Amino acid sequence: MKNGKKPTKKQKEAIKKARLNPDNWLVVKNLTTELHLVHRTSGNQRVIPA
Q: What pTM was estimated for this model as a whole?
């Protein structure tokens, strides 16, 4: 599992738009078009538009 970082304010807004709780997700990769996220407890990975 990759280690994620806490999302910034803009990233939190993008996570909320994807109907996810930003408190439960960490950012693994921040690309211009998408965010790669990892769940804090389960380790599930998701890709959402940035």
A: 0.89
Which of helix, strand or coil describes residue 6? coil
DSSP reduced 3-state for 27: strand
Flag whether pLDDT at 19 surpasses 70: yes
Q: Cα–Cα distance between 16 and 2 in angstroms, integer? A: 22
Distance between CA atoms of residues 33 and 43, nearest Å: 22
Quick: pLDDT tens for 33-48: 999 999 999 999 999 9
The answer to whether the Cα torsion of 8, 11, 16, 19 is positive or negative is negative
Measure the CA–CA gap between 32 and 43, rounded to whole angstroms: 23
